[in-house]
Write a structure and sequence with these properties.
Layout lengths: L3 E4 L4 E5 L9 E7 L2 E5 L7 H10 L7 E5 L5 H4 L2 H5 L6 E4 L4 H5 L2 H11 L1 H8 L10 E3 L5 E4 L2 E7 L8 E5 L4 E5 L28 H12 L5 E4 L3 E4 L2 H20 L6 H19 L6 H25 L1
Parallel strand pairs: 4-5, 5-6, 6-7, 11-12
Antiparallel strand pairs: 1-2, 2-3, 3-4, 8-9, 9-10, 10-11, 12-13
Helix pairs in contact: 5-6, 7-8, 8-9, 8-10, 9-10
Amino acid sequence: MNPIFHELTHNVTCIDTEHMRKDFVAAYLIEDGDHAAFVDTGCHLSVPALLATLDAKNIKRENVDYILLTHIHLDHAGGAGELIKHLPNATVYVHEYGVQHLIDPSKLRAGVIGVYGELFFKQFLGDLIPISEERITTAKDGDEIILGSRVLKFIDTPGHARHHVCIWDETSRGIFSGDTLGVSYREFDTDQGELIFPPTTPVQFDPDTWKDTIKHLMSLKPKYAYLTHFNRIEFTQHSAEMLVQNIDGFVKIAKASEDQSNRHKAIKEQLLNYLLDIATDHGVALDEAQQIKLFKGDLEICAQGLGVWLDRS
């Protein structure tokens, strides 16, 4: 296959995992000398694209030292079990709350099938392969690993999910942020910059904790965020403020819909209106039909996550 990837500065490559659509889910490849690491993997069906990227860049599979998972949602980590079969020297790093789900992914599988159905699971995710315990290391807050001469540091980052870590790369002053620094699709870029909003995926969305996490990450004074959805962006204080504002906007919608008879439908409809409004204010030139098509993949899971948060609150 011919993989789609974007060569960035500082020996970082953004790989399009081609999950659902192009420019939707990224994995990253970091290189330092003869050493390499993946950050996130996409789903099981994404693994051929990752391996093809190694081949295209003439990187030997035995030179991949690490698979670093920001969290265990399947668009980020679903391919880890398959990928590590092809990387004889790699170790998987994941938050302590994710370790057991990688060893035995049956609960993850059942949860996804329960929400989306078995047809969706097979067609868009493929499979979940367990990983042997000896190939997994817990990524704890403050832990550092060495990739060649490069230092990568794990930061515990709850809010989107309790099992979420970000990876700080001092070399590029960038944060491999998974979903913690939001979703930002390049189709919505304007002269005002990037449009950023929160993926409030079930089941551990926690807005107050998330905002504290963003504040903590901004204390590092990052230059870049390496987003899973999608690609690297410059991440400024304005970016952080936009994300916090939209977390608050999503929460306001959830609370306003709490007592409605069809709460999920009401939240979903109001979220779409909210996203279309902020896109208009941001100067997005795409017509409404195109915007709806691009937002569609996030609406359902964001509405579900807000509903779970209401029930828990």
